[in-house]
Structures are given as C-alpha cells and as structure tokens.
Amino acid sequence: MAIANTIREQFPQAVMEIIEFRGDVTVVIDRAALVEVAAFCRDADGLRFNLLSDLCGIDYWPEEPRFAVSYVLYSLPFNHTIRFKVYAPGKDPVMPTITGVYPGANYHEREVWDMFGVKFDGHPDLRRILMPYDWIGHPQRKDYPLGYEEVQFSFNHERIQAQKPQPKE
Amino acid sequence: MGIISKLGNMGVVTTTLEQAVNWGRTRAMWPMLFGLACCAIEMMATQAAHYDMSRFGMELMRASPRQSDLMIVAGRVSRKMAPVLRRLYDQMPLPKWVIAMGDCASCGGVFNNYAILQGVDEVVPVDVYIAGCPPRPEQLIDGIMTLHEKVMKEKLTDWAT
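^ Those are the sequences you sent over. The predicted structure of the assembly is below.
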C-alpha cells in the first residue's frame, strides 16, 4: 500500500484507483501514462521493480471498458510485488508497449494480441504466437465461438462422414 | 513338391512371395519416435522393459520419418500441428501405416473445440483406431497386433502394381 501511495504521489493524474484485496495491491493506471509509470517503478530508489513476472489480458465483455491488461511486477532486491491494471475500450483496444522498459514483455504481449486482439503500439514484432499465422479471430475473446463440432454416432455416422475431409494416401 | 522330397529334412520351407513379404513387414515394423500428449507416456511404457515392444520387432523407435514404417499418433493434434503431421506422413517411405492411439487422435476426444482436430483421419489415412483415454499398453499392443493381422492379409496384387 505504501508503494501504491508513492506511485500516486509521483503520478497524481495517471493513477485512477488503488485496490487492495487480501494484501494484494492493484493500481489502475491510465493507459497513456503506462510506460512512464513502469519506468519509474523499475528505476526509483526503494521500489526497484526489476522483474516483470506476468502480463495477461482480460476480456470483460459485454461491459465497457471491455479489455484490461494486468502487469505483475516483482522486486528482487526488496521482495515486494505490485499489480498494474490498464483498461482499453472495446472499440479501440490499443495499449502502449512496455517492451522498452521490460524486454521480457515481448512474448507476453504477442500472446495477449493473439488471444484477445489487443494491439500493442510500438511493439517490435507483433505476430501471433500460439495460433497459426493465418488464423482469423482472437480465440479468448468472450464473443468468440467455441467451435463445437457434432459428435459422430451410429445414427448420424453417414451424414457426418459425407462432409468430413478425407485424406489422400 | 519336388523340392521338398529331394531335400529331405534339411529344414527348407516353401511359401508364397506374398506371405514372405508380409511376414517380413510385420516382424520389423519400426514406429516413428514422436508423441503429442499423455498417450505418449503409455507408448513409452509399452516400449519399456515391462511390456517390451521389441518382442514384436519394434525395438527401435526411429527419430526420422525416412526410416519408419508406422506412425503412432499418440495424443491430440492441434490445428497448428496438423500440417506438420501430414508432412511427416508424406516423408515416410512406402509401405506405411498409421495407428490413431487414444480417443483424441481417433475422434477429438473431450477436446471438442476450435483448436483441436476432430480425429487425425482428417489429415492422414488411419489403419487402426485404439480407444482409451489414454489406452493401456495392453490396448496399444492389441492395436499393433490388429495392424499385423491386417498387414498379413495384404494382397500382392495391391502393393506390387
């Protein structure tokens, strides 16, 4: 909590909310100021968050703002943790990249792009990482269909067999 | 019968070319060394000392598709993996056979979703399907025996064209 207040004193405009839940502190940050705040947390004396331990996307559909990205920072010298949460609206899901501050965020941001379709502005190599490159859509969005296929039983065997792809020898 | 009566008890057996070739194919059918999911653990157990697939001439899992005769698809195949699997199959020399090991390789199993192929028979022709999640080594061996029976019934007119 003391760390969150330090960040709020430094960036009174950027910190929108501080949430504490059972000892876990989450700081909700305006997305325009994210890179600046992250760089401050990495370099400031007494904070020294030198490890980005996790970065993940969240889809709050159908609520607005729809997307959020959560950043978990950890300090190896001081053994403390903080979480940032940055919201993005569903119409314009763009985040600033923090690969300039934490190079390890590169693959994490690619995964969030692949699964949620949140773009990271300024990312050096924003390609899909899990799905094939020619895949259409972002599978972990809540409005993405699960892709259920009808199960083949004896009563519908012939109908499904007729439309199933048949490999050549 | 002329040869047998002349040779006496020298231990010579006469047979057909078809049977001799099929016997050779079933007694040294080398599987490809690859596993995709938890079924591969059972495949390794089948390979190991307790169940010992080398009893059936399968002591070698070949790491190269160029040297393997049998593809055991052990595990679920994702849609990203499917072209890779097909390519491995295409790289295998003839004659070649495919076993779909387990529910996921046979029909998608519990993974009925966008990412998993609903049965590996959508990309490669399958000879034997083995049920089970995962199948026990006995079931895999039974599937291999079934494949051996199938290969023993193959006709010279089919493969020597």
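The mean pLDDT of chain B is 86. The longest helix of chain B spans residues 137-152.

Shout if you want it in another format.
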